[in-house]
Design goal:
Layout: H1 3-14, H2 21-27, H3 35-50, E1 53-63, H4 92-105, E2 109-114, H5 125-138, E3 142-146, H6 152-160, E4 165-167, H7 186-198, E5 202-204, E6 207-209, H8 215-227, E7 232-237, H9 254-267, E8 272-275, H10 279-283, H11 287-291, E9 297-299, H12 311-320, E10 324-325
Parallel strand pairs: 1-2, 1-9, 1-10, 2-3, 4-5, 6-7, 7-8
């Protein structure tokens, strides 16, 4: 691997061509001292295809814990003993209050997130529709939904009340997925993506790195996201929460994380690539470097089961990177 190959591949993407799986795989062999060269080209690609705006989004944990699924990373699974706060679906007034909190932090978009596998037979779906309508009426926020697996009819109902983006992570590659979840298959996640797209919604779909997957798995995940024309890609970095099955896994180091974000930008030149949960813990003082390696979105405020950082610091970080918070 030489730096001339990085330049060749970066210029290829800037000319409007796609990188292949094998070309992306070759980039993982870059010497450590050239990782920032890959990042620099990823930044050029981001600016060329996606501009300098950065999408700031907040999340609302609308129903917490007691999830019947066995995802090994998740603090909300009943298979794990993590002592998180568990509660049933919040009512519309409570969700509105949390949405206003996110808006006060500077978020322009908020995602309503519920624990559990999905909504196919849930009696609470109509309450969520009502809450979304209230938030849209009483704030200026764009509202996304992250409700697990849904049917086409439910996707259409969400779209009909103005939800433009549905969030549902595939978590990792199809090959590695059975290693982290056995209670529902990868195909069910893909079926939800297709339902949301069929209803006319954009997709907010990403995953988690650092769970023990290979570089090939990460690249495969990126190409799956490309196949489904995912608009927004949240990339979490494993926060090995005590009590989960992955509590003893050692997450990747900052330079490996930076290279991962850069690779995703080479593969997905015009999308929103969003550093999400675990960035504060794992990138530490190098969080801003992710914004110079192709990232153009952030989750602001707290996450579902652990705290984020002061949102004002994220806005300063975005501006320091030469980007305009959206």
């Amino acid at each position: 691997m030489t730096d001339s190959f990085v330049v060749h591949l970066g210029e290829k993407v800037l000319r409007g061509h796609s990188v292949t799986y094998d070309e992306a795989l070759t980039l993982i062999g870059i010497p450590q001292h050239d990782i920032m060269l890959v990042a620099a080209y990823a930044n050029k690609i981001r600016e060329h295809f996606a501009g300098n705006r950065i999408d700031m989004c907040g999340v609302i944990n609308a129903r917490s814990g007691l999830c019947t699924e066995d995802c090994k990373f998740c603090a909300q699974s009943v298979f794990h003993n993590t002592n998180i706060s568990s509660y049933d679906l919040l009512d519309a007034s409570q969700l509105l209050e949390k949405a206003r909190d996110a808006e006060a932090l500077g978020a322009k978009r908020v995602s309503i997130v519920t624990s559990g596998k999905g909504m196919e037979s849930s009696p609470t779906f109509s309450s969520i529709i009502e809450a979304i309508q209230v938030i849209q009426k009483k704030t200026r926020l764009s509202v996304c939904a992250n409700l697990g697996t849904i049917t086409l009819q439910q996707a259409q109902a969400l779209a009909s009340v103005g939800v433009k983006r549905y969030a549902h992570n595939i978590e990792t590659s199809e090959r590695f997925y059975p290693s982290i979840c056995s209670t529902h298959p990868f195909s069910e996640r893909v079926a939800t993506l297709r339902a949301a797209k069929a209803a006319g919604m954009e997709l907010c779909t990403g995953g988690i790195i650092g769970m023990g997957e290979s570089w090939q798995d990460r690249i495969s995940m990126a190409f799956t996201l490309k196949e489904h024309d995912v608009r927004s890609i949240p990339l979490n970095i494993l926060n090995p929460i005590r009590g989960t099955a992955l509590e003893k896994v050692c997450p990747p180091n900052p330079l490996e994380i930076i290279l991962t974000f850069a690779l995703f930008r080479f593969i997905l030149p015009d999308k929103v690539i969003r550093p999400a949960g675990g960035r504060e813990i794992n990138l530490r003082d190098m969080q801003g470097a992710a914004l110079l390696a192709g990232a153009n979105g952030l989750i602001v405020g707290n996450y579902l089961t652990f705290t984020g950082r002061d949102a004002a610091m994220d806005f300063v970080m975005a501006k320091d990177a030469g980007m305009t918070p959206e």
